[in-house]
Amino acid sequence: MKNSMRESLARLANHLNTGRNPYVVSISLLVVGTALVYLSPRSILAFLVFAGATAMIYFLRMNKTAKLALAVFVAVVLVPILGARNIFYLEVIFQIAVFAALSLGLNIVVGFSGILNLGYVAFYAAGAYLWGFFGSQQAFLLHEIPGTAPLDTPFLLAPEWFYVFVLLGIIVAAFVGLLLGLPVLRVRGDYLAIVTLGFGEVVRQLVNNLDKPLNLTNGPQGITPIQKPTLPQGVVDAFNAVVGPLVGNRVTPSQFYNIVFYFIALIVVLAAIVVTHRLDDSKIGRAWTAIREDELAATAMGIPANKLKLAAFAVGASFAGGMGVIFAASRTFVSPDSFNFMQSIGVLTMVILGGIGSIPGVIIGAAVVIILNLQVLQSFSLYLTQLRQSDAVIPILNFAWKDLSTQLDPAKYQRLLFGLILVLMMIYRPAGLIPASRRIRELKGTPDASVSDGETNGDANGDAPEEADDDR
Amino acid sequence: MRIAQLPVSVREIVKPIGRMVVFVVGAGAVFSAFMVLLALVFKGSAADRLLLESMDVGILPYTVSILPQVLIDGVTLGFVYAAIALGYTMVYGVLEFINFAHSEIFAIGAFAGVEFLLFMERLGILAGAGPLFAYMLLMMAVLAGMMASGATAVIVERTAYRPLRGAPRIVPLISAIGVSFVLQDLIRLVESLTSGQFHRIFPTFGNFDDRVSLFAFEMKMGTVYVDIQVKSIVVIVAAVLMLAGLNYIVNATRVGKAIRAVAQDRSSASLMGVYVNGIISFTFLLGGALGGAAGVLYALKFTRIDPFIGFFPGMKAFTAAVLGGIGNLTGALLGGIVLGMLESFAGAYLTTFTMGAMGAEYKDIIAFAILILILIFRPSGLLGEQVSQKA
User: Fold this and answer.
1) ipTM of the complex in this document
2) What is the total count of domains within chain A?
3) Same domain, yes or no, for A31 and A81?
4) Bridge pairing between strands B200-201 and B304-305
5) I need a labelling partner for A217 at 20 to 30 A (CA). Which of A9, A26, A51, A259 fits?
């Protein structure tokens, strides 16, 4: 029964995915999604349909030019217009872009070269604080106590330097990655994970405490204001003149910044995708895979393992550094709280969910986690608040929603979300939602297990003493 | 009579206690000597002058005068770390796997104990408790913590680690990180549903907050009193008893022999008729129970707990386990004491010696720095054998 249903579903999917059908499907889905979001800008379901339609472009069997054209159309035309109607969507998409770049970076470290880095957010912090320091008044406040900045302090650099600092952030973070990597890569495996965790925490604590003797980071209060790049004259008006009728409301300059940062983040993500993709197919990428699979054998084959692992660290870090600069400018505020251990694990969750080593996987992973985090949990929170204000009662338990503790706010339960994703993925689908082809063998343990079955490693479950499972 | 001639059961009680005394005295002596030396070096420096100006005391007498208090705090903290560290080290010894969720198991113990005491308080039992009854209640709270934590540890092992036992090492580690996050929020969920807030305060009862005056000595700046809180004594005594008990179980009982066998070679042990899965569960139970007890003691010492308290003590206890040589029970003890001392010394002296440029906040950084340095330069720790470098 179940099988026949699955079969007919598969046949249907196959039918929709051959010939001219995928084009019809994707375009109609997009139209429906766009219409839904356009008509009800506050509905989360509508946004999910739109996001799903966008993701479908990747999965359907179409020719590359068509895919690219559709993707560009969505990214350049649809998203800014829909986002201008409800700025919150742009915020969500911006965050997806930021974390997609971070996941791509971590993916190089964890997925390609097999180093579990639990302190990845340190590189992000390096970028953010780089622009945080040079793009704010902090350089003139070195001897001030945090919170006592004189009102007329000038800014150190002109806002246009932002673009230079995106590049500088990439370079500096790569350099920090090298610095951390040099000592750290002496250890391996789970010890390495703990060492990187330690480094991440040390960086956060340093940032937290470097308000004396020299006030470099303004301590736990964080640095604010940080400059945004200035907009060219008349851009906002031009935007309003062109798409204003479609948007329906005038876009203010501060809202327009969301669109600008969306495009900047998009460019960085695209660059990250291209770099990752090229690396994956290159000699270096194959060497990374070799190191991941068996470092000893790789070294014996003449692969300079340490150099390449350092390179992975640096490249991975550089994505985070660039995004850090963008993040600092878009928030105009950086504080140590944004760079805690949970952020590192959040990025790791995205990589694991999407599929370690898989480029489309980690992007989807980032999107899913961010949407769950920012929208689904949030709306669940709103729903609970509504229930609390109503007179509704849970029938059988006779529990009035009014009495529900106000501390119970699902939006704050990100740890539960991350944790559950990590555990469930590790047990049921260690290769991720969209597994990387190279990764399948390693994680499944057996040479030719297929990807699609979501089986557990049930054989280790039995009471029988398992075979020597040391993986050396 | 030599220790080696004692019967095993007696020997395994005397030996660990003797070791603890040696470690405490040794670490205390080393740290004190280092501090006094440092003070001598700093004599006449800017830090010295600042101290003379502000408090009218030289850096050397100042260092000496707060030394006993710092030592006492360090030992208390050290035993808490050691008790947590044993959980990490036992699991690592048996499975070669870092149980990242152990810090939350510790937090669950703290919450179970505190919730038990708060329940007693609501019943009105706590307020009128006499001294003897207060200790009994505390003991029951510790037991509650041990049971809750032990049970959680076993359940976590069964659900989240056992299915992954054959997988590459990175996989169960990621799962453990996930479990750690899930447990943090589960504590928070349960607490916010039942009590409306997620931090809890250890209720005051009995004479745990009293201070016992130990001795006083005359300095130029006046009489310095050295005292110890009753709860610090309770923490130390309880921790010593538990550590000795654990050592006894592992080294002098049948089940302990099985644990050691599984740690040495799992497949051979199973061929010899050891029920491997049962022993692994038992290891988690032991380590978890010890962590839970440490949680209650931690709550007693520091009063305020929240679902995220586990992270820092957990990381430091892990550092302690690594410092002593992971997989090695004695090493965890030594590591815990050294780390506790170090933290207490850093917290007490860093501000003075750096003239306020670096405060007590840096103690966390120091702990992590030690973890990193040890892992990089001597991954086998102070007492460990050479561990394999293979991932």
Assistant:
1) 0.88
2) 2
3) yes
4) antiparallel
5) A259
Intra-chain end-to-end CA distance of chain A, in Å: 44
The DSSP element (H or E) to which B227 belongs, if any, is: strand B222-229
Are A68 and A107 within one domain? no
Nearest to B169 among A201, A341, A471 (CB): A471
CA distance A199 to chain B (A): 8
Residue A430 inside a domain? The answer is no
Q: How far apart are CA A69 and CA A73, in angstroms?
A: 6
Q: How far apart are CA B224 and CA B219, in angstroms?
A: 7
How many residues are given for chain B? 391
Model confidence pLDDT, tens digit, residues B263-319: 888 899 999 999 999 999 999 999 999 999 999 999 998 889 988 899 889 989 998
Is residue A451 within 8 A of residue A435, CB to CB? The reply is yes
Q: Looking at the domain assignment, is residue A185 inside a domain? A: yes
Which of helix, strand or coil describes residue A33?
helix
Single out the residue in A325, A348, A371 at which a domain terminates. A348
Rounded CA separation A454/A460 (Å): 16
Q: Is B48 exposed, middle or buried (0-12, 13-18, 19+ CB in 10 A)?
A: buried
A79/A157 same-domain check = no
A35 with A173, same domain: the answer is: no
Range of the domain at A330: 91-348
The answer to the question of residue A383 being in a domain is no
Provide the 3-class DSSP secondary structure of residue A163.
helix
Shared domain for A62 and A117, answered yes or no, is no
Query: What beta strand segments (E) does A117-251 contain?
Result: none
Fold of B3-377: ABC transporter involved in vitamin B12 uptake, BtuC (1.10.3470)
Helices (H), chain B: 8-42, 46-55, 59-95, 102-123, 131-156, 170-194, 230-252, 254-264, 266-271, 276-302, 311-324, 329-353, 362-377
Instruction: Name the DSSP letter for residue B45.
Output: S
Contact between A70 and A30 (Cβ < 8 Å): yes
Q: Which residue has the tokens 């969209």?
A: A434
Contacts of B228 (CB under 8 A, 6+ apart): B72, B211, B212, B214
**Are A344 and B181 a contacting pair, CB within 8 Å?**
no
A20 and A64 together in one domain: yes
- The domain boundary, picked from A52, A85, A118, lies at A85
The tens digit of pLDDT for each residue in A307-366 reads 999 999 999 999 999 999 999 999 888 999 889 899 999 999 999 999 888 898 999 999
Residue A413 and residue B164: Cβ atoms within 8 Å? no
3-state secondary structure (DSSP) of residue A400: strand
| Residue B312 with chain A: CB contacts under 8 Å | none
**Contact check, Cβ <8 Å, B96/A470:** yes
* Contact (CB, 8 A) for A66 and A23: yes
Q: CB-based contact (8 Å) between B372 and chain A? A: yes
d(CA A395, CA A400): 9
Instruction: State the Cα torsion B70-B73-B77-B80 to the nearest 10°.
Output: 150
Determine contact: B199 vs chain A, CB below 8 A: no
Residues in chain A closer than 8 A to B177 (CB atoms): 118, 345, 348, 419, 422
* The pLDDT value given to residue B293: 94
* Contact call for A465 and B267, based on CB within 8 A: yes
How sure is the predictor about B177, in pLDDT bands with cuts at 50, 70 and 90?
very high
